[in-house]
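Input protein
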Amino acid sequence: MPRAMLRGAASLSLLLVTLAVAVAREPGKSAKGAPDKAFARVKREYQQKARNKKPAERLAALKLLEEYRTGEAAELVYVTLLDDKTDSVQQAAIEFLADLRDDDEVMEKLVKRMISAGQKDGLDVKAVRALQAIAGGEDEILQNRLIAYLDEMLGTQKADQALLHAMIDQEASKGDQAYVLRMLNLFSRTQFFDHDFGFRRCVVQGIMEVKDLDGLTQLIELLPDLKGLVQFDAVTHLIAATGQNFGDNAAKWKAWWAENRGKNKTIDRSKPPPPSNYGNFGQYYGIPICAKRVVFVLDTSLSMRGAKIDAAKNELVRAIRELPKEVFFDVIAFDNTARVWRPEPVPANEQNKIMAINVVMEQPLKLKTASYDALEAAFELHPEAIYFLSDGQPMGGKIDDPKQIIATVSEANRVRRVSIHSIGIATNESNVFADFMKGLADANWGIFKAVN
């Protein structure tokens, strides 16, 4: 079924209708409808243990529910232990729900609880851990219900995107391969996947982590919907894994894979080929410009005077001139302050290129190097990639300590997933400066280039 049709089928109204007409077991009753006094006693004991300060007691609470595979038991675990501060208890709660994900009746009740809780708490730690437990299930009806739920939650202020990204990263590298792929496929079918660059890149990077060949199949199926930097991620991975190079031609990838899927046993984990092997991208100091929204950040501190600033401006002018027309771009110059050329990136048409080039060539040099402020301003432009050029250690900004800048920027970038490429002018003059520039790129999906 086409992705658009699947999204339409997964509307929240359809989900609520389905839940309203479902025949769910009433709390406190057995499958036959008779009062279950035994479960009532177990429930009271469970609640006491679940509130105990000792992790061992909270784990013991879960043991009490092993014989009660009911929707009410799943609700109890959701409400009490999915946000437990002890990892072992939280993981046990996740596993408890995972064991129930093939039970339609239980899932009816659990998803209904998630929807109800979401109105107040949003997509919080309990919801993320529940998704970890059940989002990779094989039941298509359950998957559509979860897509409808995510379409309502993702993108709202109540959605903990950082926690969701962290869960995807963790599961992609360590989880069961088939289950993880089904979960990532579910996420790729949400409206938010289409609209949000960071989430889209997170999901695609997760698929790239999967060693199973079905991961390549999933990437190829997604390829027609991918653009810019996420497309670049997927294509370079496909080239590295298969030894083929069909660029962004999704039809050729699909046809070749249909013929050769059975001939491959494992994915080649060798280093991806150099970017020049795919596409006619522009470049800036040898770093490919493969994103659709880019921001160039130019150091205009006094230490750049002379040959440094002349060479840096000329290279930036050349890069701007070669930008494809479908790229949106912006320029920030920084010294003691960050000066943003346009309030948002503009199309790389001839008129905008000429104006940007004039602005670059006219930039004066001033004291200080407010690196953090410049990076903060670049994030506000919602780019896919930042090209950050500097010749000195940070000084005079909101944050000057290099390690703190890397930590703060990287934390803010966990959800944005922006590639930060760094160009260090004369980095051999200072090990601290070189470590800062390289560390910034390494922690943010970027490339470091030393220019001396």
User: Anything to note?
Assistant: The longest helix spans residues 104-121. The CA atoms of residues 122 and 158 lie 5 Å apart. The longest strand covers residues 293-299. The chain has three domains: 3-210, 214-279, 282-451.
